[in-house]
Amino acid sequence: MFLNVQFCMIFLVSHVYGYLFPIEPRGPLQGQEWPPGSPWPLPFSWTSTEQLVTFDTATFRIVKNFTGTCEPIDFAIQKYNQGFLFPVYGNGNSSSDPSLPVVAELVVTLSDNEQQNECLQYPKLSDDPETHEHYDLGISVTDNTAIATLEATTVWGALRGIETFSQLIWPNDDYEGQEETHFFANITEIHDKPRFSHRGLMIDSARHYLPERIFYEILDGMMYNKLNVLHWHIVDDQSFPLVSLKFPELSAKGAYNDKAIYTPEAVQRVINGARLRGIRVILEFDTPGHTHGFGRAFPELLTPCYGDGPSGSPDAPNFPEHAGRENLDPTQNYTYNFMREFFTEIAQNVTRDSFIHLGIDEVYMGCWDPSHNPVIADFMIKNGYTDLHQVQEHYTLRHIEMVKSLGLTPISWQDPLDSNVTLDKDVVIQAWKDWGHPWDVQFKVRITDEEKSRILGGEACIWSEFVDKTNIVSRIFPFVSAIGERLWTFDMGIEDMDAANARRRLDQHRCRTLRRGLPVQPILPGYCGRWETENRRRRR
Ligand SMILES: *[C@@H]1O[C@H](CO)[C@@H](O)[C@H](O)[C@H]1NC(C)=O
Ligand SMILES: *[C@@H]1O[C@H](CO)[C@@H](O)[C@H](O)[C@H]1NC(C)=O
Ligand SMILES: *[C@@H]1O[C@H](CO)[C@@H](O)[C@H](O)[C@H]1NC(C)=O
Ligand SMILES: *[C@@H]1O[C@H](CO)[C@@H](O)[C@H](O)[C@H]1NC(C)=O
Ligand SMILES: *[C@@H]1O[C@H](CO)[C@@H](O)[C@H](O)[C@H]1NC(C)=O
Ligand SMILES: *[C@@H]1O[C@H](CO)[C@@H](O)[C@H](O)[C@H]1NC(C)=O
Description:
Blueprint: E1 45-55, E2 61-64, H1 71-84, E3 102-110, H2 129-132, E4 135-142, E5 145-152, H3 155-168, E6 170-171, E7 183-192, E8 198-204, H4 212-224, E9 229-233, H5 249-254, H6 264-276, E10 280-287, H7 292-297, E11 302-304, E12 325-328, H8 333-350, E13 355-359, H9 374-383, H10 388-405, E14 409-413, H11 415-418, E15 428-430, H12 439-443, H13 449-452, E16 457-462, H14 472-476, H15 479-488, H16 494-497, H17 499-515
Parallel strand pairs: 1-3, 2-3, 3-5, 8-9, 8-16, 9-10, 10-13, 13-14, 14-15
Antiparallel strand pairs: 1-7, 4-5, 4-7, 6-7, 11-12
Bound molecules: 2-acetamido-2-deoxy-beta-D-glucopyranose (6 copies).
């Protein structure tokens, strides 16, 4: 799945009770209207009534029903208490509605006390997504006393439930004539769990460098959409921003400049920031193609392409298509030894995830064509290879074997399978070649239960040829939300899969995210309420 900015803009919209105030130039917007406080992604089970409760924003707190620290939950409590629950603007005044029961706190319980051990752990891919991130959330009133409870099996489920709770709260202060802000929620019961355990976003920090602060904005946005994997395509042909302590030349010669780098400490800060939000970080080091970044410091790692043929210069490029060298050289042990040392550092000191993405896409086979390249021709003869795909297989299988020996589980783009390389069943394949759809097309992607049994999940991918810190957040959000809901929410039938029905709920989610301070772009004409024009305060 891939993100793209192009989408069909429609401009037939109607007045909506809730966050979005579209202007209706021609006729009513098709599809379902959603009351304020409608969650994104849709929960597995969500029932609510018209009875309301209110909040005293000065005293309301999320609290744990267990003692001791629990970093991810404490972090979430701090963040949500600080403004995600009640983004106040205008004159900053708000109070509870005196006519309604007041919810004093949300009590968070972990049903399995053992799970408190997870508070210090790095999140893992779950083989049982239905309990791993499951939670039950209730807002109820008994004898005019309102209570809110959240029960989860794991820390990670609790994080998902806190996010949903925050989405149930809505303010009145966008309505004409309202002097004072009150915050409300409907009486609600939610039982929720994700459909897939891997719900990712791929970002690329090589085509353009992304400063560290952008990662936290992206991770926040992922948390609002219950995404749980950041796939970090960290290096590529264009640059090598990762600082390796083993091979410092890689970033010294391969980064755009000496500031456009990720130090070991910065990488660990990002991984820890992700962990606190219940998000795993999978690093990608793409080989044997896309390796100019490696080649800037270590040109002898790359195959001379003989762009002029066997009698020409080994390093002759065939510009503008291809460079003089661009794939790793699969014929020499030096390449494999270097990669073993490099990946040993990654396995021991950089990644905290047990999965590693090996790329293996878009290898420029012209460079390895034996009719052009005498080095490859010689290698094929020595090994008894008759077909070029055997050269790719030679590299791929040795590389995968090495990475597995370091205790990592490899992920590859689909390309080796496309060129008939035989892979073990435990290699995870990421399909990517159907791409470029607008959000509403992504939203309608259907995965059958039969297919689901072979699928870990999915990702939205944004390569950064044309994005950098100025536009990446608004390019990702809210489009990634469509993919986020498809991966979280169970297939509940045609109507829930219909983008027209989801559109205004997504726009509500977009306005909610905007109020939390992320520059998310609109999907409809209209405005997010008085907030857009009055004394905007970023509460982050
Ligand atoms: C919440 O209650 C209001 C009326 O008080 C109603 O209009 C709205 O539809 C309800 N929302 C949900 C999600 O049930
Ligand atoms: C915390 O959980 C215990 C055991 O389930 C329960 O007895 C107690 O009432 C809970 N406390 C709060 C504040 O909800
Ligand atoms: C809140 O409202 C009161 C009464 O309208 C006003 O006196 C006060 O200045 C307001 N507070 C802020 C922070 O604007
Ligand atoms: C290259 O490595 C292979 C596999 O480890 C080994 O069999 C071979 O002897 C090595 N070749 C050289 C020239 O060191
Ligand atoms: C990992 O880090 C430790 C401590 O800095 C260092 O001693 C070790 O050599 C590193 N391992 C690798 C493979 O770079
Ligand atoms: C892979 O194998 C299929 C079936 O044998 C064949 O049709 C296809 O051309 C092969 N692809 C490549 C890239 O060799």
